[in-house]
C-alpha cells in the first residue's frame, strides 16, 4: 500500500489531454514539494516535474504539474503514443522522515 | 553527461548479505546527495535510503532500517548500499539516483541509473 494514492490506469486518444491525480496528506503533499516521474517500459524513471510545477530542461511544455492542498496533478496535452508509460508522483513525508511515492499510473494512448 | 551505473546485484539466499555499488560520472559528485530507490517486480517505486554530500546525514525507509547501510566515497565518485539480513521482500531492481540538493532530505531525483537486480531466494 503506497503512501500516496494514484489511479492505477488512465487512457486517452492521441492528441487529447489526460490528467493523473496524486493524493496524500498534510505530512507529505500538504507541506512538501511534489515531483513526477515517467517510466517507459523497461527503462529507468525520468524526472518530468519538480517543485510541484517546474519542468527540467528538455521536458516539453505538454507536461505540467499543479498542487492544491494535499493533492497534486500531472497534466499531459497533445498525447502521443510515445507517452505510454507508468507515471509516479513523489514527495517527502515529514512524519515518516522518508521519501514516498504513489503506486504509479499506467497511461495508455489508445 | 550525467551517468550512474549500478552493479553488485545477483542471487542471494534469505538472511545473507549483498553490497551494491553505483559509479557516478559527468558531474561533481561531492556536490550532491545520493539515493537508492527500488522497484519490486511488477510493482511501484520505493525510496530506500539517502545520504548527504559529506556522509554526515543518512536516512532509511522503515522497511530496511537496521539492516541496510548507505555510504559513499567521494574520492571514487561512488555510492554503496550494504544490505544485510536480506528478505524475500527485498527482491527488487535497485536504482541509484542523484538528489537535487546536498543534504538528501526533501530531494527530488533528477538522474537515475538503469538499476541492478537483487534476487532473494533459497
What keywords describe this structure?
A: 110 residues, mainly beta, 3-stranded antiparallel beta sheet, B: 122 residues, 7-stranded mixed beta sheet, 11 strands
The span between the termini of chain A is 28 Å
Q: Find the count of extended strands of chain B (DSSP E, 2+ residues).
A: 11
Helix and strand sequence of chain A: EEEEEEEEE
Rg over C-alpha atoms of chain A, rounded to the nearest angstrom: 13 Å
Task: Tell me the structural class of chain A.
Answer: mainly beta
**Which term fits the overall shape of chain A?**
globular
How much helicity do the residues of chain A have? under 10%
Number of discrete helical segments of chain A? 0
State the assembly state of the protein chains: heterodimer
Distance between the termini of chain B: 40 Å
Please tally the β strands of chain A and state the result. 9
Unreliable runs of chain A: none
Largest interface, with counts of residues having CB < 8 Å to the other chain, equals: A-B, 26 and 24 residues
The largest β sheet of chain A comes out as: 6 strands, mixed
- Morphology of chain B: globular
Radius of gyration of chain B: 13 Å
The percentage helix of chain B is under 10%
Structural class of chain B: mainly beta
Largest sheet of chain B: 7 strands, mixed
Report strand % of chain B: over 45%
Compose a concise summary of this entry.
The complex is a heterodimer of chains A (110) and B (122). Chain A is an all-beta fold and 110 residues long.
Q: How is this structure best described in words?
A:
The complex is a heterodimer of chains A (110) and B (122). Chain A is mainly beta. Chain A is built from no helices and nine strands. In chain A, strands 1, 3, 4, 7, 8 and 9 form a six-stranded mixed beta sheet that branches. A three-stranded antiparallel beta sheet of chain A has the order 2-6-5, with no helix packed on it. Chain A is globular and about 40 Å long. The relative contact order of chain A is 0.33. Chain B is 0% helix and 50% strand. Classes of the chains: A mainly beta (110), B mainly beta (122). Chain A binds chain B through residues 2, 32-33, 35, 37, 43-47, 50-51, 56, 86, 88, 90, 92, 96-104, and chain B through 35, 37, 44-47, 50, 59-62, 95, 100, 105-115.
Amino acid at each position: 500500500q503506497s503512501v500516496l494514492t494514484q489511479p492505477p490506469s488512465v487512457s486517452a486518444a492521441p492528441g487529447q489531454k489526460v490528467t493523473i491525480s496524486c493524493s496524500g496528506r498534510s505530512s507529505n503533499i500538504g507541506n512538501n514539494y511534489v515531483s513526477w516521474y515517467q517510466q517507459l517500459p523497461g527503462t529507468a524513471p525520468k524526472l518530468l516535474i519538480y517543485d510541484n510545477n517546474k519542468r527540467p530542461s528538455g521536458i516539453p511544455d505538454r507536461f505540467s504539474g499543479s498542487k492544491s492542498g494535499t493533492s497534486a496533478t500531472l497534466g499531459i496535452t497533445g498525447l502521443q503514443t510515445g507517452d505510454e508509460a507508468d507515471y509516479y508522483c513523489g514527495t517527502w513525508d515529514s512524519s515518516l522522515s522518508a521519501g514516498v511515492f504513489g503506486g504509479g499510473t499506467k497511461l495508455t494512448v489508445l | 553527461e550525467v551517468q550512474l551505473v549500478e552493479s553488485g546485484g545477483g542471487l542471494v539466499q534469505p538472511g545473507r548479505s549483498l553490497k551494491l555499488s553505483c559509479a557516478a560520472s559527468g558531474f561533481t559528485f561531492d556536490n550532491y546527495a545520493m539515493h537508492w530507490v527500488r522497484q519490486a517486480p511488477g510493482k511501484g517505486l520505493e525510496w530506500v535510503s539517502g545520504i548527504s554530500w559529506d556522509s554526515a546525514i543518512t536516512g532509511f525507509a522503515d522497511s530496511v532500517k537496521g539492516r541496510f547501510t548507505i555510504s559513499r566515497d567521494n574520492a571514487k565518485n561512488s555510492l554503496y548500499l550494504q544490505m544485510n539480513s536480506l528478505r524475500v521482500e527485498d527482491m527488487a531492481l535497485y536504482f541509484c539516483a542523484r538528489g537535487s540538493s546536498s543534504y538528501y532530505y526533501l530531494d527530488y531525483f533528477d538522474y537515475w541509473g538503469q538499476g541492478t537486480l537483487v534476487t532473494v531466494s533459497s
